[in-house]
Amino acid sequence: MFKLATLLLCCWVSLSAGRLTVSGRDFYYNGQKVFLSGVNIAWNSYGYDFGNGQYAANSKSTLESWLTRIDANGGNSVRMWLHVDGANTPAFDSNGYVTGPDNTGTMISDMRSFLDFAQSKNLMVIFVLWNGAERPQEKALNLLYDYSKLQTYIDNALKPMVTALGNHPALAAWEIMNEPEGLVLNNQYNSDACFDTTPLKDTGAGFAYTNVPMQNILTFVNWQADAIKQVNSACLVTVGSWSEHAQTDSKAQSRNYYKDSCLKAAGNRNSGKLDFYQMHTYSNEDGQGNQYWNPDAPFKVTGSSYGLDKPLVVGEFASVCSEGDDIGNMFQYVYDNGYQGAWSWHYLEQGKCTDSQEAQNFGMTRIKDQNGNAGAVTFPL
């Protein structure tokens, strides 16, 4: 009887300890094909949600109330930012080398608390390490140039976080950087197509005005992705591009800088690859105040038209920055047209291109019970 009970317990643990996986262009959780539907939270306190005692003091109750609301409206995943610009975490010494995830030792326990509560609500979490949409703190920006400093971040912060949290059932993926193309030196010719940014001319890339060479950005991604895989090969890794222009070779004024060959060419670390792609999309505005999509934007084409060999998530979008689209129809379009996930922007309700929580809830609710070709939206963790 004892052996039988032990066997049953082991089986239950095996079945309950699931994780998000990739097969071809699809996501699976515990063997079930799934579609990632949810929101960008993406922060409550920009860069100060985790670490150095900030979580319990400032964000825990708010974030847990949001997770509860997202679950109630049918979401299954959230995108949550961590270091952001490097002002709060990780811990840097006076010379700019990283000494740990944070200064006081709460970073990992804070993240675990967030993951535990997310799991209780059947929500998966994509942790975003860095933000390239705005200029980082100089000590964080230096990690893109001084690889000895980048290695200290990997050894003293990233690897400890992955070691502690990499097998958590609610951890969907690690995202190396949000919109790294904001940092890039645009319209810069290079004989290696992977580092040549002339295809991005007139696309708006480089909007953070830091002029970081593309090779540096790709090395930054390659090294961190490789480190994550070294610690836990089952962890998924992604990057959130600001538009389709940086993640496909099949469209005009576009190049897939994050394909395996380009990442390896930059950083020369074999495991430093992405497991899935992620594009952000917002409408343009003409001189009369009318909004319009790029002709190759996700809401104008199918996911398969980008010619990618991995899952593709529409990682940021908002109905207030569209061609007047209904938010429910936008979630439905992504589900029906060859994409593998949709995350609206953003639950804090702050800034120009953000939908209200009410609108985002409506969007998630629209597809919450669907289980068609794109996969199940509702499933247990």
Salient structural properties:
381 residues; alpha/beta; TIM Barrel; eight-stranded parallel beta sheet; globular; disordered N terminus
Could you give a short description of this structure?
This protein is an alpha/beta fold and 381 residues long. The protein is built from nine helices and 17 strands. Helix content is 31%, strand content 19%.
Write a structural description.
The chain is α/β, with parallel strands linked by helices and 381 residues long. The chain has a single domain (24-376), classed as Alpha-Beta Barrel (TIM Barrel), CATH 3.20.20. The chain is 31% helix and 19% strand. It has an 8-stranded parallel beta sheet with strand order 10-9-8-5-4-15-14-11. A hairpin with a 5-residue loop joins strand 6 (91-92) and strand 7. The radius of gyration is 20 Å and the shape is globular. It starts with a helix and ends in a 5-residue tail after the last strand. The relative contact order is 0.14.
Write the layout of secondary structure elements.
Elements (H helix, E strand, L loop, with lengths): L1 H15 L3 E4 L2 E4 L2 E3 L1 E7 L11 H19 L4 E8 L6 E2 L5 E3 L6 H14 L3 E8 L6 H4 L5 H19 L5 E8 L35 H18 L5 E4 L19 H8 L9 E4 L3 E2 L5 E2 L19 E5 L10 H10 L4 E4 L12 H11 L3 E2 L2 E2 L5
Helix pairs in contact: 2-3, 3-5, 5-6, 6-7, 8-9
Organism: Daphnia magna
Protein name: Endo-beta-1,4-mannanase
Keywords: Signal
Strand percentage lies at: 15-25%
State the helical fraction.
Answer: 25-40%
CATH architecture: Alpha-Beta Barrel
Helical stretch count? 9
CATH topology tier name: TIM Barrel
**Main sheet makeup:** 8 strands, parallel
| Global shape | globular
- Could you name the CATH homologous superfamily? Glycosidases
Organism: Daphnia magna
Keywords: Signal
Signal peptide: 1-18
Protein name: Endo-beta-1,4-mannanase
